[in-house]
Predict the 3D structure of the following.
Amino acid sequence: MKIEGEKVILTPITYDDCEDFVRWRNSDLIKSKFIYRKDITVEDQRNWIRTMVETGKVAQFIIWDRADNKKIGCVYLQHMDLDNKKCEFGILIGEEAYLGGGRGTEANNLICQYGFEHLGMHKIYLRVLAENTAARHSYARAGFSEEYMSHDDVWVEGQPEDVIFMSKYKDGSTH
């Protein structure tokens, strides 16, 4: 299934995308923003596709810049709780030249629409390091609202970090 927007197109991740994904995911820029910072291998990503994506536990898409027809990142929904109709959102724009310009916001909106309409979700949530104010502003522009902060929720590089939980609801409410 291809999901088309004005600036980006989302295509399901395939084994052919693994090398690009690993290059993005292991970059210093991306790791500095993520909670989980250990490097991954191409084999790790292939195993992820095999055990998580192909089994329907994760919906993961490659983000393409429409104008340049270039892969620029990835967006996904994971930790799908079908009983409670909620899942966790994640995104990375791995090509630095494509940061800004609204591509991430549009990819965010497209995958959330997919989650609400095709997966039957009611709530899509995310976790973001409290210090990552740029991401928090981007998520707010895409309709996510801050729900709460968890102090010292995770340890990153040997230090406790606060995590902000944000969510977006199918009906547009902020609960």
